[in-house]
Amino acid sequence: MRYGLRKIFIAIVYCLGVLVFFEVSARGVLWSDWGFRRIVGKASWGGPRSQTDDTAWRLTFVFNNKTLSSNSRGLRGFSEHAYEKPPGTLRILTFGDSFTFGDEVSDNETWTYYLEKLLPGSEVINFGVHGYGHDQMLLYLQEEGIKYHPDIVILGFLSFDMQRNVISFRDYAKPRFVLDGGHLVLTNTPVPRIEETLAREPWHSKFLDLLTMLRSRYRERSGELKSEMEQVTVALLDEIANTIRAAGAMPIFVYLPCCDEIARPETDMSDGERFFFSYCREHGVQSIYLQRFFLEKLERGVDLKTGHWDAEEHRTAAEGIRAYLVEHSIVRPSQPTAVDARQDVNLH
Fold first, then answer.
1. Over the range 95-122, which residues count as b (16 or more CB within 10 Å of their CB) and which as e?
2. Full-prediction pTM beyond 0.85?
C-alpha cells in the first residue's frame, strides 16, 4: 500500500517537474527577442480607445514632423461633424485600417482628405483606425457610423485585414466573430482592459501560449486558416454591406494596393485581389480597382512607396476613387482644382 502511494507521489512530482521545465523553457523562448520573432513575428502594443465595447485603439502616431489631429469623437482630422447631415451635402464615410487612417502622413495628406477636395460639396469623414480588422470596422459602423446618416460608405480593403478577423489579440485585445451555423457570433466581449490583462499575465501559462502559436502556424501552412479567414471575411463583408444599405446608403468597397501589389501588372492579381473582386462580383457590391492609377504614375516616372503610403499614394487613391464615382454616375462631374500633395502642409 505504502509502496503504491510512493509510486503515485513520485509520478506526480515527476509530471510537475516536466510541466515546470516546459513552462520555464516556453517563457525563455518567448521572452527572448529571437524566439519571439521566430514564432510570433512582429507585434506591438497599443492603448484602448473609448468605445462601448472597449475594442479599439488610441489614434496612432505619425513621423517626420507630420500633423495628426483628432476631433472630439476621435475621428482623424480637425473638423467636427454633427450626426445630422448638413443640407445639400454629399456625406461619405470611409472605414479601413492604417491605410485609410493615414499612418505616417499629415491630416491633409490622407486619401480621405484629398477625396473631399476632389468632390466639391462633399463631406468625407475618416473612420479608419490603425490595425483594425473587418470585425472592428463592422462594430464601429454599427455603433457610430450609421449615426451620421451617410450617402455613401467606402470600405478600404487590404488582404492583411482578413488575418485580423480570426484573432482575438492584435496590438491589443479585440472582439472576434466566429461562425456558428453560418451566422456571425460575437465573442471575447467585453474586451479585457490593459490593466486586467497585465494583472493576470505573470500567472498565465506561456507553455499553453506556445502550443497555441505553434498550432496557428500549422493551420496556416495546412491551408485550414486560409479557409477560415475567407469564410469569416465573407460573412463580415456581407454584414457590413447590409448595415450600410439598411442605413439608406450605398456600400462601395475599394482595394488599396500595397507592397508588391503597387507595381504588379493589372492582369497578374494577388491572392487578396482575386478574393476581393470575386466576392464583390458574386455579392453585388460595387468595387474599385485602383491598380491602373498607380501604374500610370509609375509609367510617368513617379516614385511610389510600397509600405505605408506617402502623400503621393494617398492622392493617387483619391483620384482613382473620384474617377470611379464620376464614371458610374454616382456623383456629378465637376471641375475641382487639382489637389497638390504639397499644399496646406501646416494646418494650424
1. bbbbbbbbbbbbbbbbbbbbbbbbbeeb
2. no
